[in-house]
Amino acid sequence: MTRTPRLFALLAALTFLIAMPAGAQDLTAEQIIAKSQANRRVSNSVQTLTMELFDKSGRSRSRKITSKIKQVEGQGAMSYVRFDEPEDVAGVQFLTRENPAGEDDQFLYMPAGDILNRISGSSRRGSFMGSDFSFEDLNVGSPEDGTHTSLPAETITVAGTSYDVYVIETVPKPELESAYSKLVTYIDKAQFMPRQVVFFDKKGVNTKRMTVEEAKKDGDSMVPVRTVMENLKRGSKTVITVGEYRTNVPAEELPDTMFTEAYLRSEG
Hints:
By secondary structure, the chain is mainly beta. It has one domain (7-267): outer membrane lipoprotein receptor (LolB), chain A. The chain is built from three helices and 13 strands, in the order H-H-E-E-E-E-E-E-E-E-E-E-E-E-E-H. The chain has helices at 7-12, 29-38, 261-267, and strands at residues 44-54, 60-72, 76-85, 93-97, 105-110, 115-118, 146-158, 161-172, 180-188, 194-201, 206-218, 221-231, 236-247. The two termini are 33 Å apart.
């Protein structure tokens, strides 16, 4: 499935793909998805993030996170995430390595007990650190992961701003064993930024909605700086806000060893 909306890849670049001329007409669904991802590609990045978790009553918890992403020629993207605050989650680390041939490699390290868990199979449907994002939502992914269909264009309003959007329906490939039967992505025609994504469960029920409320242009890329994921069944939501960020970070600041299971334990 196209994992364009995925959290840390989303927040640091929302990842990959091929570029095409701005203003191209009669784009296919695949081309729209590709151009959207190309407009958000950066080589390497470092960010500080705030994750706010709101329950259905509006009560919130806040967490501080550092995210580092590296692109490796011929291998794809690698993402390293560390929770810095508060004390009860400090030192928790999460590693994702893109696997172009299949399911991405994901590992969650819990310093209490020195526990390193590989996230795979049905566990990918679980909540990431109590948030409204699942582990599946954090995959890197590519357009080849799903079948894309263009729906009629619309105008939507996000955070008080109206956008003319392409509407793309994506059905995940069966072999991915996704928790979703389909996703519908609303892509801003002017900047090719996904402004909204709705997620449908296996019964066809719209269970989650993600919106990119704010994005900034950084060189040739667009960087989402405020993203909201709502769980429509529970009435909860998670807000990710990017604080400081650097893009096109020199590769030597992000050694390959950082993106290994051994590194998680050494930093725990």
